[in-house]
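Changelog-adjacent note: as of this version, every example in the card shows the full chain rather than a window. The one below runs 248 residues end to end.
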Amino acid sequence: MPSQNGIRAIFYDLDGTLRFNQPSGRDFFADRAVELGLPISPADRLRSTRWEHHYWASSDEAHHDRLNFPDGKSFWQNYGIRQLQVLGASAEQAGTLGPQISEYMEEFYRPDDIMLPDTHATLSALRESGYILAVVSNRDEPFGEYLEKMGIGKYFHFSLAAGEVESWKPDRGIFEHALRRAGVEAREAIYVGDNYFADIVGARSAGLNPVLIDIQGVFEEPGCPVIQSHEQILPILERRIVWPGNGD
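Full-length structure tokens:
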């Protein structure tokens, strides 16, 4: 059932949007660095969070590291060194602490999967209202069974992993695949995600209407509606909004 915005479909990111690690990997990493003597301020953590989002949005840094560190252990140790420097460590400190923290995380980091409290109620309301719902993720492998395990698979008409179509956000191709499967035009679809660089930039480039879920206030002035909970999508659908860059 089209909304006041003419919206017929709502696509969701998965990791960091519908489900979260508790504790987050970045917090677990930073907390260990503090235990090992590195002073880290709230501003340092926020800067690291922005950097992490950029890194995983198919950045040149990530492509370089995958080529130069093909095995998992060396990749994550190098990633830890990068992260420490963003957190304010010197090159020497990062080189010393990075491998230690990476090994610590490999041994002890076992996060729980959690969802926001309003997830089920919001998805149920959207499904009952007649919207086409889908999950479009940068994961390499299909994740339909995971959605069922989390208890939210029943709300979605389909799910799409980037690895299935060899297109990773922010590339517009993955969004175009989702639009074809849903049978809607880009202007008729919303994409909800937490990563400005991958989700908002990518959705906008494909002509979709992006909505940023940003619980911690990581991104300033993203140029699109911002929500802190899933239920906040409902009033957006009830009023006429002109998404910047997507026409009148």
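Structural remarks: The beta strands are 9-12, 20-22, 112-114, 132-137, 158-161, 189-193, 209-213, 226-227.
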